[in-house]
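Exercise 7.
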Amino acid sequence: MPNKKIDRPVVGDKKPKGDKLKPTDIDDMIQKLKSKNIHQSFIKFLVYIMERQVYGVNYNNDFLNFCLSSNFILKHRYTPFSVVLGLPDKQGLEDMTFSDINLLPGITQPVLDLLKIKTEHCEQFARLCVLIVDETALKPEIQYCDKTKGTIGYEDNGKVKTEMPAQFVTNIWVQCIGGQWMMPFAYYFTNTSCTPNDLKEYISEAVTKLDGIGIDILGVVTKMRTNFYDLIQVLNISPNNQIFKVGEKELVFIFDVPQLMNITRNNMMKYKLKFEDNYYTSWKYVKQFFIADFQGDKKTKLTLGHVKPDKTGRTRATLAIELLSNSVSTEMKNHISQGKLPESAIGTAEFIDKFDKLFDILNSTNEISMNEYCNAYKGNKRQVNFMEKMIDFMKNLKVFNGSDQDCTDQVKFINGWLISLKSIMKLWEMLNKRGYPYLLTRNITSEALDGFVWLLRWQIVMFRDPTPSSFLETFYSFFSKAYFEEPQQDFDPRIDIQTYAKKVYKRIPAVRHNINGKTKVGGNTRTSNNASRFETEQPFLRDFNSLFLECDYSVHFFNLLAVLDLS
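Solution. The predicted structure, written as tokens, is:
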């Protein structure tokens, strides 16, 4: 096979410009390919290209699915592949996918179909996921929407639409536990805050539908809002029972860890927290430390917004996490030893230290870290011992108000921590049984959805409740961006080329011309004799390998056409 540089012809231009390619030319090509002992599976590639020149491009679902599957299978190699086959580039593919899609409330079939194409070729570990569920307030507004081709702003769950204005929207996202991908999945417009029974119904339907396309949901992550806290009673979730069932499928229930840190900080501000007999917290020591640190060398990130947060600051988990940190705990202890803070402040410093370490374990992003608490969760002895100690710590934590009255039973964050800690340990057991090597705990937080809500609410210089139309516009934007973000699972030609080739071949739409020895079946062809699948595919894999693993992907293809006198 010569490898000299040749001018790239337009695929299918067998004759000089002005002469139209005819169906008989494709039949001639098939015979020439067969005479060169090119395998019939590979011939289908070439026939498909030629037919698109003769009959035009049919932009139907089969064609779009072929392009999308090829994009997710081949990843960065899709570009040369698309050039060779005359397929749309990535921007064109995105435009084709979302030009006419209608993302209505509820769980819609177009979203399921797209999600199936994105994930069906992933390894099993990339299909282990959690649902992220949250609710956002809306500013009521009724208006016509071009994207949905109808009026939006009414209460609508995808099955029932009322004439009540939508004042809340419930979001459900799917997030891969391994961090390879995440996707907006469904939304529901409601007039009032979503009820626990409705939340249970939405979650159950999502788990069932996703299971049907091969996505294994192992848990649900939510904020600790009133309706979500009431949901745990409907699901019979408690510190002693972290599992609920959808059909026969078991799932764990986890409250979002960054929000739990935020609620813990807020309770520190409001109450006196007593633990381990002699220790207690007091917010006055945090204020005293801030003043001393600010007037001194300032070795922490603390600002007035951390110590005296406004209404917005009280909802920002970032401020709480920066306050409940190792630097603050260490410097407070230094100030105590130097006499800048009273010895009674040691309880506040110890409390902060415990939650700093806890957050490190529950926010891991790498398998191995310089900080042992930031290592991926593997359920080793040290990690389990710390988690169990924190569970005992939560059980014995007492909360007192300004009148020194015990109000432990009135706060919810302790119960939220107990449920979440035990659920995360249970989730690891479920992953371990599936052969998962470790758990990066940041992947089971609502960080991605929080970013969506932040962008949704931020308007010019202040936060405001979005309207249904602005929500939908942002939802479309995030959906399209997230959909085409490639799973972090690189194409490895040295190992998986045959797997990739088989997957691409199975997605080629049906061709019109008869390839000798083959008959059409759905979107593919099958061998009319009893040849084994291995015998059918092996020569095709060899040709596929030659075409897509050469240094110049397309030269090999055009050289092939030149040798066959097809160019």
